[in-house]
Each structure stands twice: as C-alpha cells, then as structure tokens.
Design goal:
Strand content: 5-15%
Shape: globular
Number of helices: 5
Helix content: 40-55%
Oligomer: single chain
Distance between the termini: 23 Å
Number of strands: 3
Radius of gyration: 13 Å
Strand order of the largest sheet: 1-2-3
Length: 111
C-alpha cells in the first residue's frame, strides 16, 4: 500500500482483518517491483494471489503481473477511475472478498 505503514496497520486492526495477512507493506509507490518481490518471497505464482487496491496504478501493475485484482471503490480513486484499470472484480467492502472469490467461476475480464 502507498498508505503510511502505521496508519495501514491500524486500519487493518480496526476492520478486524489484520490476522488474515502474512505480510503487509505500507509506503509502497513502485507497485510492480513490490508485488514481484512478494511473489518471490512467498514462492507463489501470480495466479495464486489476489490483490486489492483503491488506486488504478496498483491494479494495472497487478494485472500486468497476472494477479487476480480487486478494485476497492471506497478509497482514494473514484469508482470510474478504478473501473478504468480493469480489475477482475470491484467491491466497496473488504468483507465481500471471500464470498466473491468462492462464487467466482471466471474473472470479470481476461488479460
């Protein structure tokens, strides 16, 4: 995330979802390289990972790398700007992600 690390951690704890993450990185502005580093660190293929962002540039970077992407519409960019980045899914609630993933038969867009 581009968010200040301490603020990001506080928000994850506020939403009660911090325990779902093995690694959280805040203050990231070069999303492509950060995503690649994380994939290498955890030794996972891009198609095994989902990525959530409220900014189009992060979604576009994750799409280029082959990750499943979620555009979060209650954050920094407008819903229209998020949609222009072509995320696989869009949501206005992080709590909806598990259901969206379990219901998904195929992505909204193919790249």
């Amino acid at each position: 995330s581009g968010e200040v690390p301490d603020i990001l951690q506080a928000r994850l704890e506020q939403f009660g979802i911090a325990h779902h993450f093995n690694l959280v990185r805040g203050g990231v502005f070069y999303k492509t390289s950060a995503i690649q580093e994380i994939l290498e660190q955890f030794k996972v293929d891009p198609e095994e990972v989902f990525y959530v962002d409220d900014q189009a540039d992060g979604i576009e970077a994750a799409n280029r790398l082959g990750l499943i992407t979620f555009g979060y519409t209650r954050g920094y960019h407008t819903q229209e700007r998020i949609a222009s980045a072509r995320p696989w899914f869009m949501t206005d609630s992080l709590m909806d992600i598990p259901k969206i993933l379990s219901d998904a038969e195929q992505p909204r867009y193919s790249f």
